[in-house]
Amino acid sequence: METKPKPIDYSKHCAQFLHVPVEKTRRNFQATTQNAAHVMSGAKFQQTLKSPNPALNRPRRNEAVVTDTEFADVLAADAPGYTCTQIFIGRSSLLADAYGMVSTNEFVNALLD
């Protein structure tokens, strides 16, 4: 099966890019990869169970999450200088994840993980 690219109407996507000019939206599309929309792993689209693009196969938690940062006075025993941990707990599933951190500046990285 072969797919043919369609021309993109960049003016329709300006709202998702904070209403920047169409030229900036066009350059943004050219600078980013567009693999997710163009790949299929089965003979038919309905046979695709997992995307070939690994970024789309990440497990997602589709629920509200509670988070807290815990601090320690001493370094963690088997970790590279961790002095605090960020804990995420799903409110309905109660699934818990903990990420070790050296400082609170790493919260963003733990949130993205």
Describe this structure in words.
The chain is an alpha+beta fold. It folds into 2 domains: 10-55, no CATH class; 65-112, no CATH class. The protein contains 2 helices and 3 strands, in the order H-E-E-E-H. Strands 1-2-3 form a 3-stranded antiparallel beta sheet, with no helix packed on it. It starts with 21 loop residues before the first helix and ends with a helix. The mean pLDDT is 79.
- What strand line-up does the widest sheet have? 1-2-3
User: What letter string, H or E per element, gives the SSE order?
Assistant: HEEEH
Rg measurement, Å:
21 Å
Beta-strand percentage? 15-25%
Give the overall shape.
Answer: elongated
Mean pLDDT across every amino acid position: 79
Q: Point out poorly predicted stretches.
A: none
What is the straight-line distance between the termini?
Answer: 35 Å
Number of helices: 2
Task: Describe the structure in brief.
Helices cover 14% and strands 18% of the residues.
Provide the descriptors you would attach to this structure in a database record.
three-stranded antiparallel sheet, 2 helices, 18% strand, elongated
Topology:
Blueprint: H1 22-31, E1 65-71, E2 84-90, E3 96-101, H2 107-112
Antiparallel strand pairs: 1-2, 2-3
